[in-house]
Amino acid sequence: MSIARQQIASLHAMGIDIYQQYRKHGEKPAIVNKAWFGGLLDLLNINEDNCQFSDALPISFDPVTKTLVLPLTITSDDASIKQQIWQKIKGDVEL
């Protein structure tokens, strides 16, 4: 069963997140197309399969499961997004 984009947008507006297999539909979250995304994955020693994309969940990283939660849609500039991500992962990164 497929949920229409308008229905998904309405649910997101109400704060309800619907998990979907975006890669199966040929859609990728906008953040995946950022030039720095690959470097972020390398820094955390993870791959795209370890990422969860959600507008309802905050940016976070679980070092035990190696799961990175990122925004599904981008609502701010790159500098702000990267700063938010760094604040969440800096304790788990070995430089």
Would you spell out the secondary-structure blueprint of this structure?
Blueprint: H1 5-13, H2 37-44, E1 51-53, E2 60-62, E3 67-70, H3 78-89
Parallel strand pairs: 1-3
Antiparallel strand pairs: 2-3
What would you say this structure looks like, in words?
A three-stranded mixed beta sheet has the order 1-3-2, covered by helices on one side. The mean pLDDT is 83. The chain has helices spanning 5-13, 37-44, 78-89, and strands at 51-53, 60-62, 67-70. The chain is 31% helix and 11% strand. With 95 residues, the chain is an alpha+beta fold. It contains three helices and three strands, in the order ααβββα.
What tags apply to this protein structure?
alpha+beta, three-stranded mixed β-sheet, 31% helix
Mean pLDDT: 83
**What percentage of the residues does DSSP assign to strands (E)?**
5-15%
Number of helices: 3
Within the largest sheet, what's the order of strands? 1-3-2
Question: Can you describe this structure in just a few lines?
Answer:
With 95 residues, the chain is α+β, with helices and mostly antiparallel strands.
